[in-house]
């Protein structure tokens, strides 16, 4: 007898053993998706291992058998099984959650309990039981949820009623798996069923003749929709021809591909600079040797990191392997897809969370069958089942979007760490690229844990683009290819404006005199500007000038933000929305003030100050889907707007050569947050957004407005000095024992009851203190418990505990957690 060790799609930490039935013996392999009976329910499960005998502690237990093989092909290979096991251990997450992270949504159905009436003549005395019997007699078999909904009782009451009826023998309750929501999409096809010569003498209508003439010229089935469109006939004509035996109808799978209708102009590699060549040769040798290694590619903005990525992908594909290219935000996928698909036509697919369930499912199917060579997407794209991944790229590796965090579903993984483990398991190369690497990543590179490759100069990497920019600037010089492809340009100068001095000078505008003057000049020259505002909405908060009352979200206790569109107040945490009150709810005063600047207010100020300027706003409120990102970016790239105003997303990785001015409305938000990474995040944001200016021959400039011009993060960012900022910041980290010197974990506790959440957080903290003392963990310290910075979100009060330790997972292993408690290993979000 063979036994399968399986993981079920349920929040349990252990695996379970089932007997392999004779009909599956020899067919079943690790990675197969099966159906098992789990408790009183049916569950999908993944086989993680096969054993010739049971563990000793299970030999006296009655073992159930696997019920069904749900897919003849394993849904994942050995590498992904090992990766999921590692993630489960590192992030203290149920193994089932880690395995299902590797599958597309909707692949497996959920367990459904079906209630059947066994005794139609039964007349129970209790009213609710009688209602159930009458309902089943009238409608037939129903699910437990359907019964509870139609009778109008809660799930707990429904369970008690149904259990009583089952015990009395009046009903039976069976479990089954509901059908998966993701299924292949099929289209109808048609082809000739006879030799074209056999059509001679057939009596055919003009419509029928057009169809058979079209099919006679191809030796393959054609889509029915294509046939009717080409011939102008209806599907009924196809049905008539089928009945006469002249054509055969069939079906084919039609993959849903978001790139299917897009055309990409093929592009060729460009000549590398000496710095690029040095970095590329090291990467090329490692890729060619099919050895696992990880590199930090530290290049200033515009230094040509993407060209190295593309040449690395080409080398991997030449060796019959595949590549994964990750970007932190959906907003960056259009430009990345454009560059990658132009270099590798018909070999690229995109994966991110905003795709439909069908698109995700089809991409997963195409990837595991070897039809895709390159995946581009956000962090979830890392788990696409390519047959043999030889290269993983994380662009903008410093970005916190690579970390999955509570209170969403576990595991709370960091894509950088998972990609590194995945590369080791599959003898692949990992490239972490950034102009502002995470301090932990740079520290590892400095200590030879990662290879370090540096691109210190900004370049122009394409002859045609150089000529376009020269033409726009009015120059007639045509550069030779070799010269153009290796031309270096300086990083843009950064001017820091002290807004305190602007106020002293009587300037109450949100635009400093320097920024106003620069905007005027750029608009006159017909060039483009990007303006960064690190917040959304019309106002930071809305308050009464008479009594000081602040309008807050009733579910989150955070200030509501005023939006001019719709005259609404919105909460940016839970989505709560309400109209603006005409009077103060507290004192009935009409003196309501909208304090602060949001993107809508800046947009209005631009319209008043520069009425001739064409302004595009790009923030979360103007984007209602992934296509909106591409639409806004494409319009700006086509120079249909003069100014692009946006939040943090405009600072990330965009390459827009006609942007000659970048303005930061205020550099200060975020610096005073209770987060030890606040300075690092501000430095990275300012450095990255400054890098959007001057990426072409037209040059560029950056103006940063701040009330703290002496702050180290602002000083070093204005000098494009990453190493200086790192040297300053790493001293603080070491003194305080923060990453990279110790790892950080966070326990987040949420509850709708403020007393309960505090009590639970204190209980957990006391348990941890006892463990630390008992194990003499002198390198482990606790911070808290304390209320979170955002004390309440969506009606839930929030407390947290921070743990600094060399190995926080060992302290938190087997910790008793209940619903509403989240363990986040290597936490990045501590607010």
In short:
This protein is an alpha/beta fold and 831 residues long.
End-to-end Cα distance, whole Å, is 53 Å
Which term fits the overall shape?
globular
Helix content: 25-40%
The DSSP helix count reads 25
**How do the strands of the widest beta sheet line up side by side?**
14-15-13-16-17-12-18
Q: At the fourth CATH level, what is the homologous superfamily of the largest domain?
A: P-loop containing nucleotide triphosphate hydrolases
Q: If classified by CATH, what would the architecture of the largest domain be? A: 3-Layer(aba) Sandwich
Q: Over the alpha carbons, how many angstroms does the gyration radius reach?
A: 31 Å
Number of strands: 35
Averaging pLDDT over every residue, what do you get?
Answer: 88
Number of domains: 6
Task: Please name the CATH topology of the largest domain.
Answer: Rossmann fold
How many strands, what sense, and barrel or not for the largest sheet? 7 strands, parallel
How does the helix and strand content classify structurally? Answer: alpha/beta
CATH class category name of the largest domain: Alpha Beta
Range of strand content: 15-25%
């Amino acid at each position: 007898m063979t036994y399968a060790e399986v993981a079920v799609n349920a929040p349990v930490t252990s695996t379970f053993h089932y007997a392999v039935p004779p009909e599956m013996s020899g067919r079943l392999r690790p990675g197969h998706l099966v159906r098992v009976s789990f408790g009183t329910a049916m569950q999908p499960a993944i086989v993680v291992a096969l054993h010739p005998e049971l563990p000793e502690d299970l030999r006296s237990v009655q073992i159930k058998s696997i019920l069904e093989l749900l897919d003849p092909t394993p849904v994942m290979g050995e590498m992904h099984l090992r990766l999921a096991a590692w993630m489960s251990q590192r992030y203290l997450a149920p193994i089932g959650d880690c395995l299902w992270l590797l599958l597309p949504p909707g692949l497996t159905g959920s367990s459904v309990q079906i209630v059947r009436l066994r005794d139609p003549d039964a007349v129970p005395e209790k009213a609710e039981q009688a209602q159930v019997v009458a309902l089943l007699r009238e409608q037939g078999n129903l699910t437990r949820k359907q019964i509870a909904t139609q009778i109008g009782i809660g799930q707990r009451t429904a369970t008690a009623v149904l259990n009583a009826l089952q015990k009395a023998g009046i009903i039976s309750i069976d479990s089954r798996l509901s059908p998966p929501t993701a299924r292949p999409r099929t289209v109808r096809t048609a082809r000739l069923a006879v030799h074209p010569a056999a059509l001679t003498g057939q009596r055919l209508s003009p419509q029928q003749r057009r169809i058979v003439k079209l099919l006679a010229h191809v030796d393959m089935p054609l889509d029915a929709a294509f046939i009717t469109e080409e011939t102008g006939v209806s599907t009924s004509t196809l049905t008539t021809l089928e009945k006469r035996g002249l054509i055969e109808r069939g079906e084919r799978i039609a993959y849903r591909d978001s790139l299917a209708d897009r055309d990409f102009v093929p592009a060729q590699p460009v000549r590398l600079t000496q710095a690029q060549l040095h970095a590329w040769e090291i990467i090329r040798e490692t890729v060619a040797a099919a050895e696992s290694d990880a590199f930090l590619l530290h290049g200033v903005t515009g230094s040509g990191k993407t060209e190295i990525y593309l040449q690395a992908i080409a080398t991997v594909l030449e060796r019959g392997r595949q590549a994964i290219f990750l970007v932190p935000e959906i907003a960056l996928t259009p430009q990345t897809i454009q560059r990658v698909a132009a270099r590798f036509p018909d070999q690229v697919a995109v994966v991110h969370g905003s795709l439909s369930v069908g698109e995700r499912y089809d991409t997963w199917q195409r990837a595991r069958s070897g039809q895709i060579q390159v995946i581009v997407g956000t962090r979830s794209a890392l788990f696409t089942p390519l047959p043999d991944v030889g290269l993983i790229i994380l662009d903008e590796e410093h970005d916190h979007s690579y970390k999955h965090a509570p209170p969403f579903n576990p595991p709370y993984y960091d894509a950088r760490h998972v990609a590194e483990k995945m590369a080791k398991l599959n003898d692949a190369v990992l490239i972490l690229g950034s102009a502002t690497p995470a301090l932990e990543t740079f520290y590892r590179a400095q200590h030879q844990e990662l290879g370090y490759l540096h691109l210190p100069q900004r370049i122009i990497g394409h002859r045609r683009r150089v000529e376009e920019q020269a033409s726009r600037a009015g120059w007639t010089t045509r550069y030779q290819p070799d010269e153009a492809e290796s031309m270096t340009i300086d990083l843009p100068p950064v001017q820091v404006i002290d807004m305190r001095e602007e106020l002293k000078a009587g300037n109450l505008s949100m635009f400093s005199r320097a920024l106003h003057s620069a905007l005027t000049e750029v608009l006159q020259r017909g060039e483009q500007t990007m303006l960064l505002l690190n917040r959304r909405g019309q106002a930071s908060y809305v308050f009464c000038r008479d009594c000081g009352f602040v309008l807050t979200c009733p579910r989150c206790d955070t200030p509501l933000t005023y939006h001019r569109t719709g005259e609404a107040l919105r909460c940016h945490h839970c989505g709560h929305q309400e109209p603006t009150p005409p009077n103060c709810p507290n004192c009935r005063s009409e003196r309501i003030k909208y304090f602060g600047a949001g993107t809508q207010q800046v947009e209005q100020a631009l319209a008043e100050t520069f009425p001739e300027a064409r302004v595009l706003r790009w923030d979360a409120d103007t984007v209602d889907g992934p296509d909106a990102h591409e639409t806004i970016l494409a319009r700006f790239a086509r120079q249909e707007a003069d100014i692009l105003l946006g939040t943090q997303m405009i600072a990330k990785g965009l390459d827009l050569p006609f942007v000659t001015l970048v303005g930061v409305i205020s550099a200060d938000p975020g610096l005073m947050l209770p987060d030890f990474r606040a300075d690092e995040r501000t430095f990275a944001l300012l450095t990255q957004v400054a890098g959007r200016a001057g990426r072409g021959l037209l040059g560029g400039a950056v103006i940063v407005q701040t009330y703290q011009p002496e702050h180290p993060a602002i000083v070093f960012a204005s000098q494009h000095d990453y190493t200086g900022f790192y040297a300053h910041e790493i001293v603080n980290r070491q003194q305080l024992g923060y990453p990279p010197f110790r790892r950080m974990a966070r326990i987040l506790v949420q509850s709708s009851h403020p007393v309960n959440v505090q009590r639970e957080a204190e209980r957990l903290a006391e348990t941890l203190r006892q463990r630390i003392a008992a194990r003499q963990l002198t390198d482990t310290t606790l911070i808290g418990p304390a209320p979170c910075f955002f004390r309440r979100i969506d009606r839930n009060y929030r407390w947290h505990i921070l743990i600094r330790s060399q190995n926080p997972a060992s302290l938190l292993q087997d910790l008793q957690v209940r619903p509403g408690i989240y363990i986040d290993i290597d936490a990045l979000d501590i607010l």
